[in-house]
Amino acid sequence: MRSSLPLVLAAALAGQGAQGPSWTAAAPGYPWSFPRDHSSHPGYRNEWWYFTGIVESEPPGRRFAYQLTFFRVGLVPGTPPFASAWAAGSLLMAHAATTDLESGEHRFSEALYRAAPLLAGFGAPGDPLLADCPGPPGTGGRWEARLEGGRFRLSMQDRRQGMALALDLVADGVPVLEGPGGLSRKSAREGFASLYYSLPRLATRGTLTVDGKEWPVRGVSWMDKEFGSSQLAPDQAGWDWFALRLSDGRDLMLYLLRRRDGTPDLQAGTLVDRSGRPTYLGEGDFRVRATGRWRSPATGAEYPAGWQVEVPAAGISLRVRPWVADQENRGGRGPHYWEGAVEVQGPLGPSGEGFVELTGYGEGNRPPI
Amino acid sequence: MTRYLWRAAAGHLRGGFALLALSALGVALGVGAVLSIRLLNQGALGAFAGTVRAVSGEASLEVVGTSPSFPEELFPAILAEPGVTAAVPLTRTEAAVEGARPPLFLEVLGVDLFAPARLPFEGKELPVAAALSEPGWVAVGPELARERGWRVGDRIAVSSGSRRVTLVVGGLVDFRRLSPLASRRLAVMDIAQAQSLFGLAGRLHEVDLVLEKGASPAEVASRLSRRLGPSVRVLSPEQRVSEASGLLAAFRLNLTALSLVSLLVGGFLVYGSTQAALVRRREEMGLLRSVGATRAQVLALLLLEAALLGAAGTAVGIPLGWLAARLELRNVSGTVENLYLLEGIEKVSLGAGEVAVAAGLGLLGAVLGALLPALEVARRDPRSLLASLTLEERTSRSAAPLLGLAVALVPAALGAYAVLSPRHPWAGFVLALAATLALPLAAPCLVRSLSRLPGPRRFSAGYGARTLPLHLTSSAVAVGALAVAVAMLTGVTVMVESFRDTVVDWLDATIRADVYVTTPTWSRARGEATLSPEVLRRMAATSGAVRVDVVRQTFARVRGRRVSVLGVPAGAPGAEGRVRVLGGGAGAVFGRLASRGEALVSEPLARKAGLWPGDSVRIEGPRGEAAVPVAGVYYDYGSEAGTVMLDLATFARIFGAGGPSNAALFLAPGVAVEPAVGRLRAELADEAVVVRSNRGLRAEVLAIFEQTFAVTRLLRVMGLVIAVSGVLLTLLVAARERRAETALYRALGATRLQAFLVFAGKGLGISLLGTLLGFAGGAALAGILVRVVNRDFFGWTLELHWPLSALALQALAIVAAGLLASLYPAVRASDAPATELSRDAL
Question: What ipTM describes this predicted complex?
């Protein structure tokens, strides 16, 4: 579960749906097929391609974290039948972030365009293009995610922020379905769910530009792909999400949804063993306890910072700690959220690294999905 | 002493109330005239500037099309330009609301609703899905919605060109929240809908750019201009407003000049009343001086009185001016819309600045008007103030030098004109000003000449007129003021009539087809409002049709001016009939449009831009600059900015393919026109078109013409009211002053009727002299306005026409008004009983 769907469009998305052709709901029994399902699913209202990774420069060994995300935000099903290249039924929103894990410098950039031929779009199955759009105005270049020759090719640049990515991710391995049949439930109530899969360990190499300086890098990325039409239930405020790669070869994905009053609502997760076989975790199968807090000086939002994660049946007991305190993504055009690299220490078992996402913290900051 | 001065001033105010009320009225009318014109002038530009501010308020730069749209493929390059932080693409469409009387045009902005634009939608949530997908979804201004009773969900039938479109009110958008002067006609829809519904696929009109802090707008603009090529211009919002202000400059200056004449006449009135009051009060001033008042104190007292007068006049003049501005709003707005294609004025607002200017003018005018007579009194010694008649003698002595000055003004003004005119188009106003100023200077001599009339046989009106020179100062001022007003009235009347006749001749010569078909939005959208091929096909197929002529029209820039460009089928038989060429020979010249691809330029453009046969007119089109040789210059009164006429093929070479803006139908001889118009209307009922007969079109052009000059009517009337008040004022003073004299006549046996007639005779004398002098001045002014100002300023050659019967009627009306104004003073005077006889008068 991922997404900070920050949007201008809290308003846009509210109050629609009943009339006209409607969106497809995420339902059990979805017939998965790859690589077809890497491409977009315009029948569902929302969809996102989420790439996060921790990479190291070659040689001197400087470490960076990065994030590149493309969101498809459906506004009306299909494309309105107008004689215009601007006719669009959806928006494309893209977020990119880099963190220099040594200096602690975190940069964020975002782009938002209507999905129309002149600007932004999503490729159909068979098209190597997954998603592309222009960078933020005045920065030049296009942001893209492609799937070519078994590799995800990611690129973005923002001259103003002095940041750029050009990375190749080897797309091998079988996608992990995050939930039985790939259906990821978000609420005890019916109808709040998404279709969700991950590729947790993608060998990554390419270049990363931070503060105007280009670094050749290599490392490992996590790819998440989710689509659905209705995720967050009305009484939910946000979620904490963990994607952790453990040193013993297992991968752990956990999410915890919170109600508007801050109390926990629903939690679930997937533990993937070294052979790629998932075990689905439910309510009583794991515990996550925050061990610290961090208040953003920029937005005033207070986030948990540092956790104790226990999966007793799997012998997992982890201390998860943000690599850098301030990895808050603050854009001009949507809710802010925390998305950052974490270090994992397991005094009694495996250690590791990963990413955590924290949404819905701070006033009036609920993701509009 | 100071306390006395105040008391004296108060006493004076009480004593001469009618007199003071009149001079205050003079100030009030003068201030009102100037203020109303200032308000309208400001409104004319304010509406445009307010709309630019509301739509592009945050933008530092605007990319606008030259023709006037440009290909949307340029958008990504604009978006990527370094320094840009936001780019909002727009289309603009003038959409005529069907069935609206008076005509109503929505200015529909097609905006990318997801670009970071500042759109002041009302209500909490914008129904984005409906805006994107419900065909015709539009947000309109709340004021307009209230006015028209539109509610969410209502359908509005509109047209753009001959295309009919149904809009659906989906919400409200209030640009007046961003800029109070923004047009209430602004409406917003999603850009995809706008392009699709109005036939603009692939085209944008504007991209508003917000720049990052520290970026230089000039540098970004020049980089973008280079990168994007000639199909766009990159401007700051200020540049756009100043271009509009350049378009309106001549129109605004013209109005200002007219209003200043009113102020001048008002100033005369103050001068006259002060002079008159001083004649009455000279003994009082003499006494004051004898008991120790200094010259400075007397001067201060008189100027203070004048200032109070000015304040009273201003207090009345400000509401008056505001009222006049509101009355004229529709006419001026119509002119701004029709002739200059700018935003119409929806309201005028009276700001503190305008009040201050009006108050300043009123006070300064009153004090300046009183300054000369007050100085004159303050300078004198007490003895001469206490003796009678010396003041009049002095004026009488200066009559001849004043006339000399008037005569000397002529060569001086001509010299100034010769020096200024090559570079300043307003130089003609110097001549007009001189002609106006010469009149009051000539007035004393003219009044004095009355004493040379043969002595009257009876004690009646003739005696009254002949004795006018005895109170030369006040009568000369009254005659002068009246003359200035009459001259203005006459000059403007002759100019308007000359203009009308010229336009009628021009229409006769050039509007020759039988039926004209255009679209409701043509007058505002020109090249963007086109006729569909279906309309042309049906026109050609209608019974009795011989030939269909089309005109394509657009705007382009020539030497930095926005001019209208016409494409006509120059090779068609009889095509040369559509113009009259300077120097004649339309046939040969027109041949060169078709055979050599040359151009005709309209007279205003030729004169202002200096483009004559043999030159090349460089037209900045969407594909770059095209140099077209000028074949000739033609008379045109339709556009002050100027017009270039090309053959359709040349037009298409410069501007690309496109539909015609309007079409003309020639009928076979003997086919009745009005029934044909009716038939064509029925055949084209499903298209948004306006079908007019030759006569209908001509009537409409003349109506626009009348509207343009309507504003002069109010000014003319105001000037005349001021002047007639001057006559009343002068006679009131005379009645009061000559009370003793009248008493003497009565004592000597004159009847009340005789006394009455003597005064009525004075009124008649002033009116006749003023009218006579005014007509002489008016003739000169008319010549200057028609032959010099219009040619230099607007670039129009007008034929001088003298509407003699109208002028005669005007003269009669003025004399009658003067006579009427003298009735009350005459009655007052004849009331003087013989017992008022004093020793002084003997």
Answer: 0.90
